[in-house]
Structure formats: C-alpha cells, structure tokens
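Here comes an entry:

___
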Amino acid sequence: MRTLRVLALLLLVGPCLLFGQETRTPLVAVLDLTGTRVSAEERRNVSIRLAKAVSDTYMAEGMERGDKWRTALSENAGALQNCSDAGCAQKAGKLLGADVVIIGALTGGYGKATIDLRAVDVASGRDVSTYSHAFGSVNDVINQLRAIALQLVQDLTGQKHPGTDVLEREGLALLRVVSSTEGALVSINGLITAAIAGGEAWRAVPISREIRLSVKKDGYYSYARTLTIREQETTVQADLKRRQVHVATLDGVFGGGSMGSVRASLWPLADRWFVSAALGFTIVCLDPLLANLPVSVGTGLYFFPESPSPVHLYAGLQGSMNVIRILDGRIWTDTGDFLSRAFFNLGLFLGAEYAFAPHWCIASEISFFPLLLQVAQEEESWIQLSILVRLL
C-alpha cells in the first residue's frame, strides 16, 4: 500500500519538477589574453568586453569578474594568467566553476591587430570553437567583439539563435539577415553585432522598438534601413552590390620620355580580381622630339593577393592605345612640321601599395611593355614607373 502511495506521489510531483526546470545556459569564462606589442591593460579590456558580448548572445553566460573570480585568483593566480593551452584552461575552469573557458592571444605590429581564440570545454579538455582574424587595430577588434562572441557561442552550443522562451522572457525578437555577401558585417544601432556566414546572420533585438540596421563589406555598396520589429522573427534580405574603386595616378614614363596623369576606375570582377579602364594625358614632355600632347586609352586586369601586412603586392596585365605627335623624321626643323602616330602596347606590371590612412593608400608600379608598335616607324620596349594614390 505504501508503495502505491509513493508511486502516486511521484506521478503527481514528477511532471511539475520536469516542466518547472529551465535548461541552463553554459557558463563561459574569458581569461586574460596573452600576446605581444599590445599592452596588458588593452588585452584585459578586450577579455572583459568579450565576456559581456558572450552574455549578449542570450545563448551562454559570460562570467563576470566578481568575488568568485577574485577568490580563485588569490588562491591560485598562476592558473588564470598567461594561460595558453587546454590543460591550463581546464584547471582554470574547475577553479572558477565554468563550463567553457576562452583563451587566446591578441598581438599587434605591422599595422595590424591579430586575435586568436580557443573555447575549451572544461569537462573534456577539447576545443569546441576557434576564431582567428587580423584587424587593422585593437579598436577594430573591440568593435567586432559581438560578432566574434556570437560565432564562438554558436559553435560551442550548436545553436544558431536563442530559444523563443528566452527571447520572450527578455522582451526580444529574432532578426534574421539574409545576404549573398559572405563575411559582410551586420550592425544594429551603430554596433557591429554579427557577420554573414552561410548566407545569413541572426541577432536578438528589442521588440516593438525602432532599430537602425546596416550591412557593410569593403568593396561593396552598403545596405542601410530603419525598421521596427513587431514579430517574434523577422527576415531582412540585404544583398550588397559591388562598388567601383576610383584611382588617381601620377605616372613617370622612361623610354618614351614623358610624364602623365591618369584617372581610372577599378571594377571588382571576382574575389581579389579587378578590371580597369583608364584615360591618360601628358602634363610634361621630357623628350624634345615629342610634342606635349600624347593621349592614351587603356584597360587592365589586376590581382590583389591577401596579405596580413599593410603593404600589399599586386600584379596584372594591361594594354593601351596611344596617340602622340612627333616631329617629321625625328629631326627638329624650322617649319616644325608634326606627324600624328598611333601605337598599341601590351605588357605586364608589378606593384606595391601601402595604406597610410583609412580608405587611402599610396602605391608604386613598374610596368614592362615588351611589344611597342609603330612609334616613329620603330619597334621598342617600354619600361614605365608609376606612383599612385588610391581612394578606396
């Protein structure tokens, strides 16, 4: 009889216990990042901000540096400092009572700030997520911490976005941004919050409030929109169009004996490939046998390989049609009779550019035209040195 009463009690109380229990989000501790050429204070600031960004995903809880953290630090300071391997992360996680520990490095130099992160599961010691990227500065890293945290948390939880129960409790809705532009950065109210991966990005946003949404990527026209989220889930299509890059160049030409100015436009053709169109005219003519009126129209194909350095090398193929006026027979005469000549050239070029300010860089190119046709009844080679200023 007693057994029957116990079974009946379990049947009554059991469902209440089950349905009253909430799924616990993982507790994530972010240790101070190691690294060189970035101050310890900056590295600690990035670590603290990253923990806050983890909490802002609503899929994990970033551990605050309160009493528990200070107690663990006083008992075993070495476990929480200069941690760079899975064993150290496990030990620190057990001291702090965390489920996951994020460790890594923030390194400066060469005009870049590179961040490398590992999320280590405390129970197993395995990496559950990694992240590595080179940014222009430490401020750029800070501006993208929300996007970085979201990627790490999505990997370690296996979730794309928070559950509807969490969103309703927090008064939030789900904003889904769909875009064919991989890697584009999604900003909400001026803060970068996610990056397009796999054609989409998710973010929890306040419901029934006006937000400013923008999607940006270098080399593309930006998408911007103000909207009010009124449903539990809203989808926005934000495909970006490639934009042209204007280039102003100052060319010094050796062999032909002239200096010219060229304005060109580069149109993105594919990833790291550009095609150009150019119109050139001469400012100064150094050769007394050439009149001060060469004009050229040309096109080129550029390839810009990826580089972690602020100095980028590039190469390409270009051709042009040139019209010049030369003296009859290349002999200066009293009558000063001129003949017009048109010639075509096709050549290779190699260049290097240095970004000295946002959206601006200075570059130098050397071009070799092995085939130069119909210049004063001759065939010659042409070597050209150019100095360029780019507005990106």
